[in-house]
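Renewal narrative, Specific Aim 1. Our central claim is that a sequence can be written position by position from structural information alone. The example that follows is taken directly from our test logs and has not been curated for this report. It begins with the structure tokens describing the chain, in the order in which they were read.
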């Protein structure tokens, strides 16, 4: 109450009330790459409704998606490219030159201002500047990869799902050397990988499973029940984590299904977007602070400071 009284008018008190009740963030956005109709689309994560203002992107075999700020990155398996788009509108991102000549690129991950791409047919990981698209000179791809498809990065560790080896491996992102203490995970077709905290989650495309592992050791994660086709999985491809849940693109089921990241239990209340066509890749935006809240806070602080300065002069 003392704070409100320090303002000079009822209008100022009303502005403060608006500040205190303003929403903290906007809704999260789900991006889906549909292999069946070669498009990337955008939806409200909570409702499954298409995002207004976003024009679907035409892209052949959009096998990989990644986000950084307002930039949406996508690989095209059929054209061998890595491209960048405005995550709000779907327009090509200014300043980024599309990377060409990739070898059936699949998973893509962002870390430290760079993008890392799994080249399925070339058995390699390649790296690019996320602002310009320029190749990252001196980057060392891990050796011994075999049809790399799933990709995730946490800190300085790169996780790769190799379909040809039926395994998930962990490497130093900087050197490409295998991480000591991490036991490779046997998984038939590890198409999707994601990290949340110290947990590594992986889909098995051919086995219709979603499982969880300790990201340091590769051991199965206690308390998480592996999910199967009986709980909505159907040729699961990429997986993304957000708000304590996991979201999986089911290529054969034309759905996105949600699961509790701690227990693995399916969230039956989740509404999948309609009209999906063999969804392969997904990415989820982080919550964005409402600009009005920040502006109102600055305005209220400035007004309070002005009131105090005037009172000091009296």
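The sequence written for that structure reads:
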């Amino acid at each position: 109450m003392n704070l409100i009284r320090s303002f000079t008018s009822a209008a100022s008190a009303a502005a403060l009330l608006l500040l205190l009740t303003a929403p903290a963030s906007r809704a999260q956005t789900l991006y889906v790459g549909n292999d069946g109709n070669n498009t990337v689309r955008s939806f409200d994560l909570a409702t499954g409704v298409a995002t207004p203002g976003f024009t679907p992107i035409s892209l052949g075999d959009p096998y990989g998606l990644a986000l950084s700020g307002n930039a949406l990155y996508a690989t095209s398996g059929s054209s061998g490219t890595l491209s960048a788009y405005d995550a709000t509108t779907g327009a090509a991102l200014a300043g980024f030159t599309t990377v060409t000549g990739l070898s059936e690129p699949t998973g893509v991950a962002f870390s430290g201002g760079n993008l890392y791409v799994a080249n399925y047919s070339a058995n390699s990981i390649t790296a690019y500047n996320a602002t310009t698209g320029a190749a990252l000179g001196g980057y060392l791809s891990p050796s011994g990869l075999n049809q790399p498809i799933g990709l995730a990065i946490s800190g300085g560790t790169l996780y790769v799902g190799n379909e040809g080896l039926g395994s998930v491996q962990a490497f130093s992102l900087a050197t490409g050397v295998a991480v000591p203490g991490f036991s490779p995970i046997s998984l038939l077709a590890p198409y999707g990988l994601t990290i949340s905290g110290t947990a590594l989650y992986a889909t098995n495309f051919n086995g219709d499973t979603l499982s969880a592992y300790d990201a340091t050791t590769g051991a199965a994660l206690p308390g998480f029940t592996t999910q199967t086709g009986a709980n909505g999985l159907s040729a699961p491809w990429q997986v993304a984590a957000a708000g304590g849940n996991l979201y999986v693109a089911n290529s054969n089921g034309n759905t996105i299904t949600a699961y509790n990241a701690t227990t693995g239990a399916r969230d039956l209340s989740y509404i999948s977007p309609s009209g999906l066509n063999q969804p392969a890749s997904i990415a989820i935006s982080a919550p964005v602070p409402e600009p009005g809240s920040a502006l109102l806070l600055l305005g209220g602080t400035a007004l309070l400071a002005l009131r105090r300065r005037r009172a000091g002069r009296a």
